[in-house]
Task: inverse folding
């Protein structure tokens, strides 16, 4: 609804007693509109506005990315994990990948930096195909043409899409990870040098060398030790980072000011230029355990604004969760959000919304006495085909909450647009 004055009268029938302490009031409410110009709508398409507020991380609900895995073997079932071993390894990879994103580390570059660290606010969940009986989201394929990956030579195939066309499952709805390895004939050559390489496409990725790395074993304290075991989840996070709009940081402008250029050293050496090296997830290094605020913001921008990325998410914003999202100080939301809880604006605080905000079925926004909600071109709606409750304005004595709309702001998909709640005087 655009430039509209909402005049709403609700007669709420309540069996209130003197013990309740509150009465509900039926009252005509005028929601203000003004001629003031709102912020340019391009603000909603600015990736930096999607960086989570470090003081209020829960204002950025955690995104849950649906994912499945494909282990590629040759026609004899060789060249990659067998099923039992592969299934167990996927569990390790998933746990470690999510743990890295949750326990984001301090950037090593530039030396002595104070770049902020925060959880990425997204994670992966293994997603079976509901149309396949007893499916677990982990697949094993035997194919002599697709079990290996090469990034050099006449048989280079790392950019080929045929593997996804043939074996992709829940395409466009689940992020498919294809795990390939060395060609078995290549390993017979004494001059062949294997290396991890992956590639990212729009909604799927290729990873490599997980199996080969697990074959490199040494002894440590009398027990087998796998020095390259923990490279798989780091490679996967790197490639999926590309899917979510992140770029290599050493090669030029990656769109982030907090990711400095560097010589892309794999590891630290005693002499320059590799006496200092990166641990950023989008670089080539053995750590890959750091995401900068800008990178996190870019990922959330893609997961919110790009429809093909958004389709990969569990729609957690369709179901209302318990608890409240409390706004305790003046706050501006200059990005789109998909909320999962009721919102309450506390007395003395103003919440300014300039972009699209989805609220789940049954949710409401409560504006307490002395609080203000400003829709400066913002759009409140439900993204799931349901209805949310609407705006509840609290009143106590002569003080009540305020709502202001301008720049074609809209309130959609509500059971009640505005409701007034009055405390007992």
Result:
């Amino acid at each position: 609804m655009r430039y509209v004055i909402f005049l709403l009268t609700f007669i709420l029938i309540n069996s209130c007693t003197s013990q309740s302490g509150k009465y509900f009031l039926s009252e005509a409410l005028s929601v203000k509109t003004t001629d003031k110009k709102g912020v340019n709508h391009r603000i909603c398409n600015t990736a930096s506005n999607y960086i989570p507020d470090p003081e209020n991380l829960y204002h950025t609900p955690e995104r849950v990315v649906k994912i499945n895995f494909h282990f590629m073997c040759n026609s004899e079932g060789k060249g990659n994990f067998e099923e039992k071993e592969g299934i167990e390894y996927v569990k390790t990879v998933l746990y470690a990948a999510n743990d890295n994103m949750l326990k984001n580390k301090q950037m090593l570059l530039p030396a002595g930096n104070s770049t902020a660290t925060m959880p990425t606010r997204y994670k992966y969940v293994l997603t079976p195909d509901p149309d396949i009986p007893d499916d677990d989201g982990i697949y094993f394929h035997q194919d002599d043409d697709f079990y290996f990956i090469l990034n050099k030579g006449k048989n280079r195939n790392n950019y080929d899409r045929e593997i996804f066309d043939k074996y992709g499952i829940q395409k466009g709805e689940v992020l498919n990870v294809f795990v390939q390895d060395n060609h078995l004939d290549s390993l017979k050559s004494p001059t062949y040098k294997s290396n991890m390489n992956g590639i990212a496409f729009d909604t799927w990725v290729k990873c490599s060398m997980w199996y080969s790395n697990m074959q490199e074993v040494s002894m440590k304290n009398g027990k087998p030790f796998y020095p390259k075991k923990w490279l798989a989840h780091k490679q996967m996070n790197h490639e999926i980072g590309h899917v979510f709009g992140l770029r290599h940081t050493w090669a030029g402008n990656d769109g982030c000011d907090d990711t400095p250029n560097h010589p892309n050293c794999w590891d630290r050496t005693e002499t320059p230029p590799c006496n200092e090296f990166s641990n950023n997830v989008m670089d080539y290094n053995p750590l890959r355990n750091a995401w900068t605020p800008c990178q996190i913001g870019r990922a959330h921008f893609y997961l919110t604004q790009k429809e093909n990325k958004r389709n990969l998410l569990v729609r957690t914003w369709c179901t209302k969760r318990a608890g409240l999202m409390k706004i305790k100080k003046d706050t501006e939301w200059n990005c789109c959000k998909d909320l999962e809880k009721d919102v309450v604006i506390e007395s003395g605080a103003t919440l300014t919304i300039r972009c699209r905000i989805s609220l789940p079925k049954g949710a409401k926004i409560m504006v307490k006495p002395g609080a203000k909600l400003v829709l400066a071109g913002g759009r409140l709606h439900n993204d799931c085909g349901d209805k949310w409750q609407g705006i509840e304005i609290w009143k106590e004595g002569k003080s009540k909450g305020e709502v202001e709309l301008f720049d074609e702001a809209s309130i959609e998909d509500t059971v009640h647009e505005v409701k007034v709640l009055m405390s007992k005087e």
